[in-house]
Amino acid sequence: MGLKKRTKFNAEFNMSSLTDIIFLLLIFFMLTSSLTSPNAKNLDRPQSNSKTPSPQNIALSITAERKFFIESEEVSRGMLEERLLVRIREERAKNKQKGIATEVTVVLNVEAKETTGTIVEMMKVSNKLGVRLILATDPQKK
User: Fold this and answer.
1) For labelling alongside 101, which of 3, 87, 109, 115 has CA 20 to 30 A away?
2) How far is residue 79's CA from residue 75's CA, in Å, rounded to a whole number?
3) What's this model's pTM, rounded to 2 decimal places?
């Protein structure tokens, strides 16, 4: 009886698990990059050593030329409160659908050289609309 021994070693590598991991990483990085709100208008923001993360609901940017932007949409000063109110209602409706009970936060991006009067004016608007306003800062340079 002629039985042969099988001494061949199969050196194949299964790539399916590796591709699954790569796709999961890709999805993770795509989701986390869309959650961050970059400095929309490339402003020279004030610097701070605070490392407190902020909720990114609505971004309000004011350029040195006194142009107002909600997210990336330019808005005139006269329509600012009305457009902010619309965005706040949208954000609250979105949170309610998701079952999230967080308050809406407006993140204020201004130039570092902007006057305090502008920041106080935006604080008054946020108080009038019933939302929390926080000032976005850049990390302090060492």
Assistant:
1) 109
2) 6
3) 0.59
